[in-house]
Amino acid sequence: MALPRLLVLVLAGGAGGRLQLLTEHRAKPAVPFAGVYRLIDFPLSNCEHSGIPDVWVSIQQHPASLADHLANGRPWDLDRTTGGLMTLPPFQGTERGGWNTGTANSLWRQAELIRQFGPEALVVVSADAVYELDYREVAEAHLQSGAEVTMVTTEVAADDAARYGIVEVDGDRVTGYAYKPDEPATTTATNEVFVFDPGPTLDRLEQLRSEVGEEGLEDLGTHLLPAQTRDGGARAHPLKGYWRDVGTVPAYWEAHQEFLSEEPPIDLDAPGWPIHTRGGRHSAARVLDDGQIENSLLSGGTRVSGNVRGSVISPGVVVEAGATVVDSVLLPGVRVRSGATVTRAVVDDRVDVGSGATIGGDGDVTLVGRAVSVPEGTEVSAGARYPDPEEDRPTR
């Protein structure tokens, strides 16, 4: 029996404002994770291991940061003569041209292209979460169910549920859906993986567009998913494994801490399901002189002569002798000079932390923006943003 014709659409165009300084100069899906990966590596690796060769990536914010990483799709076996990886930037020239104003709006703008492709099932995913999932398995179950949409779901903490689309289920049937509700009815959330029946879904989008206008379509959870739920066309597919939305700075930091455990929630090098990325650009890591590493992830091209504990060290980072890094995430090219201390912080690309400077401490996670110099002896308090967005930014 021939495999069903599937298409994956990765929605990678959001602004990612909740990640603050981390998305000031890069697309959210291009944000580094666990040292050498980018967030978009997770859905693309899922496509590879699910045996889905047709993957489209809708891009918008800071497209160069994604284009450089995606290249021709080779790390995920998507460099094909027919099919493979295709990027979809904003365009002009038709009535559907323009800037995407939400995920449903983005899907509407690509509707004609999707219809021409003719998939039996359309898998729509975001690129700001860390998880493993066989999309083909979900799609095949969706096709057998006769539903208009299958929502992949997961359980979230009660005090965090208001950030998500929340569903009520009866068996596998979705009986209620609320998008980012003030008072969530359950803690069962959609994890931004949806499998749609393309024809009915795109027809419904056209009807909604005639009612609310193209900008009024907004996100999938604003009108589309509630309408599909009301008409009895939605089913749930629980995700049994690990899933973590890393769309906020605290969640991003906490996810890194989870991957520092002796048994991380996902084996990133699992023989049957490795997470692939564009790599090969860094030499081996080096621990020099009196450098000490404890319970940390150390990436290629790093040089550690200081003390690093409970931290994720990305490619090209230098921690000089006498420097201390504790419970932190250092993104590519950071330099922590002698005598400096970095605690419970996320430090963006190419930051130079001056000698004797102190960043963070016990309390909320501290965030340091990209390519800044933290002067010698500076103290950045726990939970702060540096530089302060209201002040002039020091640059190198």
From TrEMBL:
Molecular functions per Gene Ontology: nucleotidyltransferase activity
Keywords (alphabetical) are: Glycogen biosynthesis, Nucleotidyltransferase, Transferase
Query: In this protein, which residues make up the domain named Glucose-1-phosphate adenylyltransferase/Bifunctional protein GlmU-like C-terminal hexapeptide?
Result: 290-362
Stored Gene3D superfamilies: Hexapeptide repeat proteins, Spore Coat Polysaccharide Biosynthesis Protein SpsA, Chain A
Output the Pfam families linked to this UniProt entry: Hexapep_GlmU, NTP_transferase
**Which superkingdom heads the taxonomic lineage of this protein's source?**
Bacteria
Region annotated Disordered sits at: 374-396
Taking every annotated instance into account, which residue ranges of this chain make up the domain Nucleotidyl transferase? 9-260
Q: Which PANTHER family does the entry mention?
A: GLUCOSE-1-PHOSPHATE ADENYLYLTRANSFERASE, GLUCOSE-1-PHOSPHATE ADENYLYLTRANSFERASE-RELATED
The family assignment reads: Belongs to the bacterial/plant glucose-1-phosphate adenylyltransferase family.
Protein's name according to its UniProt entry: Glucose-1-phosphate adenylyltransferase family protein
Source organism:
Geodermatophilus arenarius
